[in-house]
Amino acid sequence: MKRTFPALGSLLLCVSLIGCSSEPTEPPAAAAAQPELIDRQVLFGNPERFQGRLSPDGEMMSFRAPLNGVMNLWVAKRGDFASARAITEDTGRGIPSHGWALDSEHVIYSQDIGGDENWHLYSVALTSGDVVDLTPYAGISAQLVAQSSQVPGMVAVGINDRDPKWHDLYLVDLASGERTLLARNDGFASLHVDNSLTVRLATRSEADGGATVLKALGDQWQPLLTIPFEDILLTGILGFDQDNQGFYMVDSRGRDKAALVYVDLESGDSRVLASSERVDVSNVLLHPQTHQPIAYAEDYHRPRYQAVDPQYQASIDQLNAQLSGGASVLAQTQDNRYWTLYTDDSNRSPVYKVFDLESGQLSELFVTQPALEGLNLAKMQGVTIPSRDGLELVSYLTLPSGSDGNGDGRPEQALPMVLLVHGGPWARDVFGYSPMVQWLANRGYAVLQVNFRASTGFGKAFVNAGNGEWGRAMHDDLLDAKAWAVEQGIAKADQVAIMGGSYGGYATLAGLTMTPEAFSCGVSIVGPSNLQTLMASIPPYWESFRQVFARAIGDPQTEQGLALLQERSPLTYVEQIKRPLLIAQGANDPRVKQAESDQIVEAMVAKRIPVTYLLYPDEGHGFARPENNISFVAVAENFLARCNGGYAEPVGQDFAGSSIQILQGAEFLPDPLRTVITSAR
């Protein structure tokens, strides 16, 4: 629902979004020589193709590509783009994700409405073209749990139509959508099936935030192993072995870095199959037929694959020798001959490739954005920054192209910088191409991305160091990264902006409220401002994860926890804001609801503190429609240019087709930007 806020009076301080409605103050100095600005439409428009996959039999390929300007699903013979045909005709936000059914006769995809994350699962029959909603139930959020070559034409799906908190498990027919109950869920965080799609395991969240893994014995459940709270974010079940006698896990119990382990189903005993001293084991590849682990990725600054099974060592060596940047194996054919990879050098368009294990050759499937080829994109570099208490913060620095004249990874002169904070916080920044990073670097900014404590991938001591530290030690890591960049001659101390989405949005609001002079300005995208209301409004199907939030942020069921939530909420310190702030929100966001942005904007208006607030009524937790993304970037670019000294591309058709609403602070937008937005809509 659209909300309006009282207009601010004439007593406003000049700390608005892009200057004040009166004569603006002199903007900060920009970088020395303006580069050729890359069109926002090129960076943030639809890719030519994306999300490439080979069918399990290796005969076909699928991908997302525009159909009448909207990302839809296409299929073709492998490598034959002339035979490509669209198999969906969405006209809204597009199809966000898809994969193949193991029968190679159906494509499966998920979709919500307007970003509400009430996901439905669909199948498309390639022969007939029939599209079937496999989960046609109101208000649900479906989960694809598993499929197996032993049960062709069927998938195991979690559906929470009976109780929104818990997903019952069903066997669903891909052709008809008919479902058969496999297991009722009366309080399990997850249910797991073996290779015959028989329910064998469940995980149950415990009051202390940990979990118990149970095995099915007839109609009963018997505890098999426990996962302490400190391991819960790093430990999970991958799948069963060929004979269904045991299963594979990524497991941090008894060690700091998560290892690949095998667990005997009868005894619960486990043995380590692979581990790393620097990072958690990730992206484990299992053989599609034998289900034995083949390889895994170690990802410190960049990912590198390691063989688990010695017979694949030569293949992994051949693969690594042909990779120059980031890479991730996305799918394997059923005979395991072909692997589909997403490969990612930071300063060029990502490329989907196919690795042939028989020949050892890595060949191109398609380039995602050919329009990027030949552009002067910036190169990302991995850096490690020490925190004030001795942690290693694995980070990524991207400098504007041409600013590093000496080739030492440092600019010839200090630059304005944007500290770009990732969401989660239980996620991480990785090496590779990012349209937002390239956009900022092209506009004259050094861009620093920091894996602060609570980021995943670097062991349980690192991730758990963030518990109870929202707005404190986690924020100190960002401040330490800023100080490092200034000391290294990378950034100008008074020209460092902070920007991010979700947790990154929270970090932006925390930066401008709790450390009001640390940053030149901030851009918060779907950022929570009040941790009490955030905790009170999490989706019901996150119930099993509630204790993790409570332990990390503050428990609203206790007096001490409520006090902590209030103390760490940016809303509590809103009167301290001194720097320009831009807030952007999706109206349908189920994670960080619109009320989170409404509250802090309302408080700023009441205290006569300028702010500009953008709302997208057809978006959720982030902006999926390119028209909306481009319009937001156009506003943010002008904002940053005014308060942080970079460059801004002239506004053209950036608001055509966008649903952008300016609920507050339109008077702070300079002409012609304000006029263009109004006339475009």
Automatic annotation (TrEMBL):
Peptidase S9 prolyl oligopeptidase catalytic domain ranges (all copies): 434-644
Annotated GO MF terms: aminopeptidase activity; serine-type endopeptidase activity
PROSITE patterns tied to this protein: PROKAR_LIPOPROTEIN (PS51257)
SUPFAM superfamilies membership: alpha/beta-Hydrolases, DPP6 N-terminal domain-like
Keyword Cell membrane: no
GO biological process: proteolysis
Key word Protease present: yes
Residue ranges of coiled coil: none
InterPro entries xref list: 6-blade_b-propeller_TolB-like (IPR011042), AB_hydrolase_fold (IPR029058), Peptidase_S9_cat (IPR001375)
Signal peptide coordinates: 1-21
Keywords recorded for this protein, A-Z: Aminopeptidase, Hydrolase, Protease, Signal
PANTHER family documented for this protein: DIPEPTIDYL PEPTIDASE FAMILY MEMBER 6 (PTHR42776:SF27), SERINE PEPTIDASE S9 FAMILY MEMBER (PTHR42776)
Protein name, per record: Dipeptidyl aminopeptidase/acylaminoacyl peptidase
Provenance organism: Ferrimonas marina
